[in-house]
Amino acid sequence: MAEFFHMGGYALYVWGSFGVTLLLMVIEPMLLKSRRRAILKRIARMARLNVGEVS
Amino acid sequence: MSSRIVNWFKFSSPATFYPLAGRLIPWFTAAAVITLGVGLYMSFFVAPTDYKQGEGYRIIFVHVGTAWMSMFIYVVMAAWAGLGLVFNTRVSAMMASALAPTGAMFTFVALWTGALWGKPMWGTWWVWDARLTSELILLFLYLGFIALQSAIDDPRRADRAGAILAIVGVVNIPIIYYSVQWWNTLHQGASVTVSGQSSMETVMLWTMLIMTFGFWFYAIAVVLARVRCIILERERDTTWVRELEGEVQ
Fold first, then answer.
1. Model confidence over B201-220: pLDDT tens digits?
2. Chain B residues lying within 8 Å of A14, measured CB to CB
3. pLDDT digits (tens, 9 = 90+) for B83-122
4. Would you call A4 and B120 a contact, using CB atoms and an 8 Å cutoff?
């Protein structure tokens, strides 16, 4: 196991590459989720305001 | 949809494209997770140790795929931007905007993994040679496209200005691709060429291709999710958006 993580002495480079790639590929969808939540909230708020105006 | 001729212009309207994109996202997400899972397993447990570079060569499985993605996404982005410019279809321009951040992300990853690969193999993180410099320019093109679009308030004008930048920037793509042939560079030549010849071992080649497919599925899922956000942001005052999403929360 330790040998696997050691990567024949290239641990920093191999895990640095795969790690950062994976990290960014997790962060990007998370940012999109919060962007979607924000716009949905805004749309819902505007819809409520409009209903208030009509009644 | 029973008719054999699909009217593609139908999907150039945000109101029809939005739900279509929403239906496609789960499939591409699942495909990305499965493919990248298999690809990662093969990267570390199936692909053999390289006789020259030891375990350090395994960086290739992220480096090459993301570098391909960085170039391909740019071409796709410019194509959507061009379509938007010619046909004035709104979704095309939105697709171009949605592709840019993911393209920039893959370009950054290609540069980052390249630096981490260059240090142990070449003895340097960075050199100003043709391949590396032109790839860095690609990152600046993506960032320039994003910055230009966000600097213009009117979305239609922002689309057009961005489209012209994206199309002019396409000139950089063949420069990146052929840089290893046109100039003397530290970067090695292509291991896989368009003509189908490969200098790699079959298992390594397959691992690389599977990882690349995984990046593709990921990119499609993420870009569709982003284009849905862009559609909602731009169409928030329309009735269809209010009817569709106004009830949520």
1. 788 899 999 999 999 999 99
2. 55-56, 58-59, 116
3. 999 998 889 999 999 999 999 999 999 999 999 999 888 8
4. no
Q: Tokens 């740019």 — which residue?
A: B74
Residue ranges covered by each domain of chain B: 26-233
Chain A: give the shortest CA distance to residue B4, in Å.
35
Return the CATH class of domain B26-233.
Answer: mainly alpha
Q: How far is CA B67 from CA B25, B113, B132, B134, in A?
A: 24, 10, 11, 12
Q: Under an 8 A CB cutoff, do A44 and B249 touch?
A: yes
Mutation target to probe the A interface, by most A beta carbons within 10 A, among B45, B46, B59, B223 is B59
Model's pTM, two decimal places? 0.90
Rounded CA gap, B144 and B64, in Å? Answer: 24
Torsion, Cα B7 B13 B19 B22, to 10 degrees, reads 100
